[in-house]
Amino acid sequence: MQRLSGPGPGEDMEHVVNERRERQVLTTLALLQTFHANTSFQLSRLASLIPSPPTVALVDTPPATQPDNDVIYITPKDILSFELGPLSSLHARYLEWLAEEYSGGARFVQDLL
């Protein structure tokens, strides 16, 4: 008796491997999309806490001494706005790193009052 043309045992395995690879790719893309959305949210929140830089004057004037403008005091409410725990030292260190890395030299100091 002659066999009807259909997928052989090797073709079935190849199909299963291709489906698994496709699911892994889709899962990876979904994770990357979620990571990107969270990162965008946190960076936009960071931008709202950082004061905008002063405008450049066209006339040569001596720079005014400004008291520690690179320090940004954040409250537990500010930390909550990042969807982080206000009592977590790990989250506070993460925000310090985020500010140091993306704010152009500003530094976060946690104000517990």
Short description:
The chain has 113 residues and is mostly helical. It has 3 helices and 2 strands. A two-stranded parallel sheet has the order 1-2.
Secondary structure elements and pairings:
Layout: H1 9-49, E1 71-74, H2 76-81, H3 89-102, E2 107-110
Parallel strand pairs: 1-2
Describe this entry's structure for a reader:
This protein has 113 residues and is mainly alpha-helical. The protein is built from three helices and two strands. It has helices at 9-49, 76-81, 89-102, and strands spanning 71-74, 107-110. The chain is elongated.
Task: For this entry, give a set of tags.
two-stranded parallel sheet, elongated, mainly alpha, 113 residues, 3 helices, 54% helix
Describe the global form. elongated
Q: Indicate the radius of gyration in whole angstroms.
A: 26 Å
Question: Count of helices?
Answer: 3
Q: Which structural category fits the helices and strands?
A: mainly alpha
Could you report the average pLDDT, rounded to the nearest whole number? Answer: 81
In the predicted model, the low-confidence regions spanning at least 5 consecutive residues are none
Reported for the largest beta sheet, the result is: 2 strands, parallel
State the strand order across the main sheet: 1-2
Counted beta strands: 2
Distance between the termini: 86 Å
Strand content: 5-15%
The succession of helices and strands, N to C, reads: HEHHE
Give the % helix.
40-55%
Oligomer: single chain
